[in-house]
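[job 0412] stage=complex_fold ligand=pyridoxal-5'-phosphate status=START
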Amino acid sequence: MNNYNFDKLEDRTNTMSAKWDQREAIFGTQNLIPMWVADSDWQTAPAVKNELISRAEEGIFGYSFATAEITNSIQEWLKKRFDLTVASDWLQYDTGVVPAINFTLKAITEAGDGVIIQPPVYRPFFESVKNNDCLLVENTLVEEDGYYQMDFAGLEEIIANWQEKPGSLKAFILCSPHNPVGRVWKRDELIRLIKILQREKIYLLTDEIHADLIYRGYQHYPILKLLAEEKNLKDYQNQVVAFMAASKTFNIAGLHTSYTIIADPKLRHKYQAAKAGFATGNSPFGLLALQAAYQNGEEWLEAQLDYLTANYQFCRDFIKQEIPGLKLSRAEGTYLAWLDFRQLSFESDQELSKFIAKEAGLGMNQGNWFGRAGSMFMRLNLACPRQRIKTALKQLKKALSELN
Ligand SMILES: Cc1ncc(COP(=O)(O)O)c(C=O)c1O
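[job 0412] stage=complex_fold status=DONE, emitting structure tokens
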């Protein structure tokens, strides 16, 4: 039994919430239920909140650094949740996964190098490749009956047909679990991917920010864990950078703290050199929230995972039973629902988005924000009270029924 209340309809208006207070700016109307940006509509774990309150009481908020205790809390969390062992000097602290991906590309690429991504995928992946003057190489996921898989044949083809300078197909950015389609990659899928990248000496940037958000019945495999387990893969550690955070898991994304794991000392030095002049330490609130979450937030997380799993199941069943023509992609984790409108009668992404905001009264992410493969899809954030999901889906059902 626990006392966590994920059903409570919190009022997030006038809190500088990007999701709630930018509705007018983003959707042209304040009058919709915002279910877009990936944060949660409930309070963080009590342990995190209490730690921040007591730190605020101290009244001095100068420059801070990650103490050995914070590093230790990460090591223990990764061991306990994933059986992953990381040495303390592998850990770098960052203000977010997105800047960390940019620093990594800056460290390992030259202008004109190729970087592979798997759309539909989190848009900053596209942008970080472009920021670093690299060539964006799209290996689109394959979708069948609402279930997404990696296109291994397509990847082999990209490699075989690479016409640029030898060795310049430089990096692959993996989203694991995958935003927006909600796949939690299986062990054998990841091993297969690693083997191809290792063979080609392609760096692997693995964004595991959603690693803790796994629906019941599935399991997340950190890339570094797989490398440690398989004798022939261990050496590939020198080409892997992993990005993780407590930010999605504990709804503390606004505190801008993440950590980057680099096992290889040479790669770590390159990474640190790439950061120099761009990054100036972390917020004491972000670091303390991370520590409190990992030290004292596990019970809250387990309760949240039960709730999120039930939210996804509710959404899945409602759509199946009540909204003909709309398809929900089969998700195994994250709290994002990927809705397929291709069988409905919309003519363009703009028309679909406008309909969702103005007619259904819902603020979702337009699918093609995640690349062309997301055209005619919308992303719905399920990290909110079930009651709100129910209201939203009813509004969607009604609006769609009035279309015909
Ligand atoms: C896959 C993925 N990576 C990174 C981020 C953002 O990370 P950060 O806020 O740490 O830059 C998100 C946020 O939605 C995400 O879904």
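Residues 84 and 225 are 5 Å apart (CA to CA).
[job 0412] exit 0
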